[in-house]
Design goal:
Mean pLDDT: 91
Number of strands: 38
Strand order of the largest sheet: 17-18-21-24-26-25
Radius of gyration: 27 Å
């Protein structure tokens, strides 16, 4: 009897301890829910609050103990599904959380089944919608139209990602255009593609005072209106990761500030340790043979324009790349610079970074002033179009204004020199910008080629008649088109505009010396996938804005912009 009593006593203690543990565990699991498709639970879906990472059970249920710091819970979109969409474009893979940590809450998600092992993805960046420069009209007449055409023509799903700077922080209050207005623009124009957004430096609240939590507080509107500032999703066999590599500081300085702005809107391009720790947990559920695409606003690697060497832009380049080292194929995609460059860090042969030019080109200025869209490096304003089939990816740069995807521009240097020497106002502007090229010292009878999306495995050839010319890649070279499409008209309107940050030097220009001034030239470019692009130039060839206007079928943008320029 005594022996039985002792066993009973021990059993009672064990039961009590078990019940206490279960109660404590249950209490700790303050966020739960179910992920389903057509009422059936989906197993193995990754769920997170930005710190804790778990997966749904066989019935699609999840439970996590969240500190609720970020204020949301989100799931990683699994292969073969699409999320519910809000406002026609915004994927609702997340839900806001109650600020009370002790409060238990449930958030269920319903997904739609889709075969998306084959699809197209638009990689776009820097819309900079701000209720200025007639940006709304330009956006709808060019980029929106291209997206409508793309979706209508595709036999497969088409998605979009925005690599930051949807808005423009300095105009949130001055022009009454913020992230809510961006959402309304996309909603009212019926943007046709499910869009996965990335936060940029200009998507932070400039009314946030400098302090220890400035970055977190400044990004609060983003996390409330748009989505988490870091998350992941799967499209077909590809795993995508979105990171926030902008630490917004908004330090108090000299000013003066526009309405509502309280600081200099400055920032650091770094990925926080919290995100990197979350990333490790997220990738723990991803096989190392999976192709991974990491999206962020500012590039982590940069290409030296003189040596063509890929260098780390900040400490995040190494920290992030070390985490990605086990994966067989990794692509970084970034925006921010408003020009094109492709980087291949030697230390990480599995990684390629694609720095994509801007949808807005030079902040919508060239469309307003010159009826063309051109970025600071001469690349047309546009986007990169990725076609995905299984784990195979091909890509091509596309202009906002031409759905044929022009890949180059060819200049007759004789015509460029003549234009520059005969344009007195341009000469005055250049005299105030010592870092700019006036093309005086370029040799006669030569050609200059801008291959916008050039990569090191591309081939660039030039023929004078049937004669093959020697082609040389030029270090730190300038495209003359931005000077006449942006810098010159802005200087004409404002003689105080004499900055060195208009047109920029780039690393995708090529030089070839011709023998005469009048023989036709053919440029042949072969890309990474064997696609061949040719441009025939009858010489002497005129230089001017009409070069790009002819490429967009002589349709002037201004005719499509009925609104008053602002």
């Amino acid at each position: 009897m005594q022996k039985m009593t002792k066993r009973y006593f021990v059993a009672r203690i064990m039961l009590a301890l078990t019940l206490c543990w279960l109660t404590a565990t249950s209490a700790a699991q303050n966020v739960s829910g179910r992920i389903t498709c057509e009422g059936k639970g989906i197993a193995g879906v990754t769920v997170s609050d930005g710190y804790v990472v778990t997966q749904t059970d066989e019935n699609g249920n999840y439970n996590i103990n969240s500190g609720k710091k970020n204020g949301y819970v989100f799931y990683t979109l699994p292969r073969g599904y699409e999320p519910q969409v809000k406002d026609g474009f915004n994927p609702m893979f997340w839900a806001k959380l109650n600020t009370d940590v002790s409060a238990k809450e449930q958030h269920d998600f319903s997904l739609n089944k889709v075969d998306n092992d084959r699809y197209s993805l638009v990689i776009s960046a820097d819309y900079h919608l701000a209720n200025r420069n007639n940006d709304d009209a330009q956006f709808k007449a060019t980029f929106l139209k291209r997206m409508q055409e793309l979706k209508a023509a595709s036999h497969y799903p088409v998605y979009n990602t925005i690599l930051g700077d949807l808005s423009w922080d300095v105009y949130w209050y001055a022009n009454n255009y913020n992230l809510k207005d961006f959402v309304n623009t996309m909603k009212t124009c019926k943007f046709p593609l499910i869009t996965f957004p990335v936060i940029g430096n200009h998507d932070n609240n400039p009314g946030t005072p400098e302090g220890p939590d400035t970055d977190f507080e400044a990004s609060m509107p983003w996390r409330t209106i748009m989505c988490p500032n870091y998350y992941s999703y799967n499209l077909g066999k590809i795993h995508y990761v979105v990171l926030d590599n902008i630490i917004y500081q908004n330090q108090k300085g000299k000013g003066p500030y526009k309405k509502g702005v309280v600081g200099e809107r400055n920032y650091k391009c770094e990925i926080t340790g919290e995100q990197l720790e979350w990333l490790k947990k997220d990738l723990a559920f991803v096989d190392t043979n999976t192709t991974v695409v990491v999206e962020f606003h500012s590039p982590t690697w940069v290409l030296d324009k003189n040596t063509f060497e890929t260098k780390g832009k900040n400490k995040s380049a190494k920290e992030l790349s070390d985490i990605m080292k086990p994966y067989k194929r990794v692509h970084y995609v970034s925006g921010h610079t408003h020009y094109m460059q492709n980087m291949h860090p030697k230390e990480y042969p599995n990684i390629t970074e694609h720095n994509i030019a801007a949808v807005c080109a030079m902040w919508w200025w060239t469309g307003k002033l010159s009826d063309i869209s051109v970025c600071s490096d001469g690349t047309p304003g546009g986007y990169s179009l990725w076609n995905v089939n299984g784990d195979s990816i091909t890509w091509k740069y596309m202009s906002n204004e031409d759905n044929n995807g022009i890949q180059m521009r060819v200049y007759d240097i004789n015509a460029v020199k003549e234009y520059y020497s005969g344009e007195a106002t341009l000469q005055k502007f250049l005299s105030k910008n010592d870092k700019r090229d006036d093309f005086k010292n370029w040799s006669e009878n030569s050609i200059l080629i801008n291959v916008f999306a050039y990569d090191t495995d591309w081939k660039v050839e030039a023929f004078e008649g049937k004669k093959l010319l020697a082609v040389k890649r030029m270090p730190a070279c300038e495209d003359p088109m931005p000077a006449i499409a942006h810098d010159l008209p802005r200087y004409k309107n404002n003689k105080n505009f004499a900055r060195n940050d208009g047109s920029s030097k780039n690393n995708h220009m090529f030089f070839a010396q011709c023998t005469t001034s009048d023989k036709p030239v053919t440029v042949k470019v072969t890309d990474s996938f064997g696609n061949i692009y040719t441009k025939k130039v009858a010489r002497p060839a005129a230089f001017g804005l009409s070069m790009d206007r002819e490429q967009i079928q002589k349709t002037k943008i201004s005719k499509r912009y009925k609104k008053v320029l602002r």
